[in-house]
């Protein structure tokens, strides 16, 4: 388990250099006292591990930029990929002071070694031709975040999946899988969403696609408070969700989504260990009393059972072994 004494830890993503796993995570000081304030103080931390269990923390990867900038208030969730020349690219979410944190945009930074990061000029905004903007006033903020970047299946470029909202439909059911394409990780074309609205989700947070047991699966998270009125009325629970798909670009039928873990855990991330077995980590969101926790779990094995992605290690005694290294 990864936990810091001085900071809350929540959303996270990985890079694997072949020797070590690199964990990038959102963090904010516990001196804020109220964990709900953490979103506006978030920076991107960094830790490494050889086994996904015992972690060494390093200097932060990114902190809010000097203003004015699209990310001068907080830096939020992203993903990391490596180009053919060996340069690492981090795509991440930023919010700014001018917009009072309500308008989300996507930027990037590059690194030769995963430790020192240099921001690029990229600022990718939601396109009103396909995606809801803040001016529509149907949601508290302009959702355009959590970029998940992968190499395109045909090898012609890179695809980015984005937490976004459609321009029409019931406000509490506009959550969609946003999409952008790039031939070179520098120039991006915003494309139409890969799922439709009307499936019971206000937003689909922290997207990830993987192929497990020969089945493509999309993982996302949604809190119970952000489910549609209809889903809440039938007592659907929030948490980590999955939906099976025909390919990494869907199309994704979000109406077929099923719950993998309730919202005591949030932001599930899939990663393969050194023997090729798929694992899921998540951050501990709430305790039994409903209080925010803010730490990252040990890995739990996953596989497909009866056609659904399932946590299969709930009773593995190794999961009781928890470690962290805090260098604060």
Account of the 3D structure:
The chain has 328 residues and is mainly beta. 2% of the residues lie in helices and 45% in strands. It contains one helix and 21 strands. The protein has one helix at 229-233; strands at 7-16, 21-29, 43-49, 56-62, 74-82, 88-95, 105-111, 118-119, 144-151, 158-165, 175-182, 189-191, 205-212, 215-222, 239-245, 258-262, 265-272, 278-286, 292-296, 300-305, 308-311. The strands form five sheets. Strands 17, 18, 19, 20 and 21 form a five-stranded antiparallel beta sheet that branches. The two termini are 17 Å apart. InterPro entries: GH32_Enzymes, Glyco_hydro_32, Glyco_hydro_32_N, Glyco_hydro_beta-prop_sf. Residues 19-226 form the Glycosyl hydrolase family 32 N-terminal domain. Its EC number is 3.2.1.26. Keywords: Glycosidase, Hydrolase.
Secondary-structure topology with pairs:
Blueprint: E1 7-16, E2 21-29, E3 43-49, E4 56-62, E5 74-82, E6 88-95, E7 105-111, E8 118-119, E9 144-151, E10 158-165, E11 175-182, E12 189-191, E13 205-212, E14 215-222, H1 229-233, E15 239-245, E16 258-262, E17 265-272, E18 278-286, E19 292-296, E20 300-305, E21 308-311
Antiparallel strand pairs: 1-2, 2-3, 3-4, 5-6, 6-7, 7-8, 9-10, 10-11, 11-12, 13-14, 14-15, 15-16, 17-18, 18-19, 18-20, 20-21
């Amino acid at each position: 388990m990864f936990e810091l004494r001085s900071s809350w830890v929540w959303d996270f993503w990985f890079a694997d250099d072949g020797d070590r796993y690199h964990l990038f995570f959102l963090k904010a000081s516990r001196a804020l006292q109220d964990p709900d304030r953490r979103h506006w103080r978030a920076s991107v931390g960094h830790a490494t591990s050889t086994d996904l269990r015992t972690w060494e923390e390093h200097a932060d990867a990114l902190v809010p930029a000097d203003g004015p900038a699209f990310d001068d208030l907080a830096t939020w969730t992203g993903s990391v990929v490596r180009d053919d020349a060996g340069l690492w690219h981090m795509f991440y979410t930023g919010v700014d002071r001018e917009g009072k944190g309500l308008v989300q945009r996507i930027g990037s930074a590059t690194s030769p070694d995963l430790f020192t990061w240099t921001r690029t000029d990229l600022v990718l905004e939601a396109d009103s031709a396909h995606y809801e903007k803040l001016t529509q006033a149907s949601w508290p903020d302009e959702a355009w975040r959590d970029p998940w970047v992968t190499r395109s299946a045909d090898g012609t470029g890179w695809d980015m999946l984005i937490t976004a909202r459609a321009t029409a439909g019931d406000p509490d059911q506009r959550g969609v899988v946003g999409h952008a394409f790039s031939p070179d990780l520098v120039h991006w074309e915003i494309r139409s969403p890969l799922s439709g609205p009307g499936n019971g989700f206000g937003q689909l947070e922290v997207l990830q696609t993987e192929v497990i047991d020969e089945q493509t699966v999309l993982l996302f998270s949604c809190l119970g408070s952000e489910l549609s009125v209809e889903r809440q009325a039938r007592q659907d629970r929030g948490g980590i969700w999955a939906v099976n798909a025909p390919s990494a670009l869907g199309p994704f039928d979000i109406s077929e989504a099923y719950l993998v873990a309730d919202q005591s855990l949030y932001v599930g991330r899939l990663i393969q260990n050194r023997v090729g077995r798929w694992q899921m980590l998540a951050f501990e969101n709430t305790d039994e009393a409903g209080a925010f926790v803010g730490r990252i779990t040990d890995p739990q094995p996953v596989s497909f059972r009866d056609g659904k992605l399932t946590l299969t290690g709930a009773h593995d005694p190794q999961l009781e072994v928890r470690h962290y290294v805090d260098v604060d």
